[in-house]
Amino acid sequence: MFVGPTILHADLDAFYASVEQLLNPALRGRPIAVGGSAHGGVVLAASYEAKAFGVQGGMPGWRAARLCPELVFVRGNFTRYQPLADQVMDILGDVTPAVQRISIDEAFLDVSGSVHLFGPPGVIGAHLRERVRAEVGLAISVGAARTKHLAKVASQVAKPDGLVVVEPEREREFLDPLPVALMWGVGPVTRQHLADRGIHTIGELGRATPGMLRSLLGPAAGERLHALAHNTDPRRVSAGQRARSVGAQSALGRREPTAELVRAVLGHLAERVGGRMRAKERAGRTITVRVRFAGMRSVTRSVTLGAPVSSTLTITEVAERLAWQAIGDQGEPVPEVSLLAISVSNLGPQRGVQLELPLGTEDPWRPGSAPGSARWALDASMDAARARFGKDAVGYLPATLGRGAGVPDDFRELAEKDLG
DNA sequence: TCTGGGGTCCTAGGACCC
DNA sequence: TCTGGGGTCCTAGGACCC
């Protein structure tokens, strides 16, 4: 058994932006942003040339344009991303079946069983990088180490277009000078909390007592950070994990929450969520609605039902009730709404015709509602029509929603892709 | 000039049960 | 009489990741 840095983390560099530069040579070497515009919207990804100016994914377009006046905004060929990423994952899978994909563009590999065939992890990493470059045309960075967390840190350090192998006897030397923000799970809030205690590097974090970290960050986060800093995190590479929730959301700008608007948006979201659950033969007991108000404050309301549901109509009805509860709790005057979201969790298998009854009514034949079997038949025919004629063939998306919703549908398709 | 869309995990308080 | 301890589930909120 090979003992050493047998966990690899492989991560495509600036993936969406790199694909755009691959597809359009005129964009190569230039600062580009995928998504957004100089006037609005959100940048989904930035090329390294743009990152040099401080442009980052998630940033409003107008701010990105101010940071980098030559920035080129491209709309994004969203349908091209998934196949290219899949092609890369296939290459990774050629050296080991133990590939855990954690997003569209990155994966962990356990190569402990592969070293006798392909050589040490550093050689495997270099080989994978060459193949991805030659066969797909993209740069991928690879980190190799004894644990997942350290491999991920190593790939971040390797970027752009690099390979970093952390030998076991040099782990401390490698980790200690790095900023805490490179650690998985340390975001802006935690980084600030640590900075307030004079902790800026992973080395400094390693010298903090577990008790101090627990009281500062809570038991779980404190424990985990302590383990990460000492590189004793035990997580293994595991292929295939089921989703724990299915959700959809829609940003609305600022809108007065009329009955028509709320019903239309929630109906549309429920259709997306329900359709995806039915496609996976899953159903869920807990339905959560999030309402974000103008000013970005948001509240959630949820309910757990006695039985799992996946019908569009049932989800719509429950979601509507929850949304009005959330809005009503804000008091007068009724605030403007900037986003609605539905998520279904507590998932389990969905089998056969469900007995989904309209909530809050004893009589399933109440006008305007449908009994369980009718709901199931309705969903089934809608799903079938969509499968045959395309996703826009049926269902309803009122004209009031059609415009101004910033994100292309192709991106939604991509974002909802099941990676399990 | 005004902030996307998809997720995971954790915490705290309360209800409820034994 | 007036109050123990443990466990589970639910709800709301928040940090974080890609």
From TrEMBL:
Reaction equations catalysed: DNA(n) + a 2'-deoxyribonucleoside 5'-triphosphate = DNA(n+1) + diphosphate
Cofactor: Mg(2+)
Enzyme class: transferase
Name this polypeptide is given: DNA polymerase IV
Pfam families: IMS, IMS_C
UmuC domain boundaries: 7-187
Active-site residue numbers: E106
Organism whose genome encodes this protein: Occultella glacieicola
Binding site for Mg(2+): D11, D105
Keyword Glycosyltransferase: no
Function: Poorly processive, error-prone DNA polymerase involved in untargeted mutagenesis. Copies undamaged DNA at stalled replication forks, which arise in vivo from mismatched or misaligned primer ends. These misaligned primers can be extended by PolIV. Exhibits no 3'-5' exonuclease (proofreading) activity. May be involved in translesional synthesis, in conjunction with the beta clamp from PolIII.
Keyword Oxidoreductase among record annotations: no
Localisation: Cytoplasm
Cofactor details (free text): Binds 2 magnesium ions per subunit.
Domain of life: Bacteria
Record-listed E.C. numbers: 2.7.7.7
Complex and partners: Monomer.
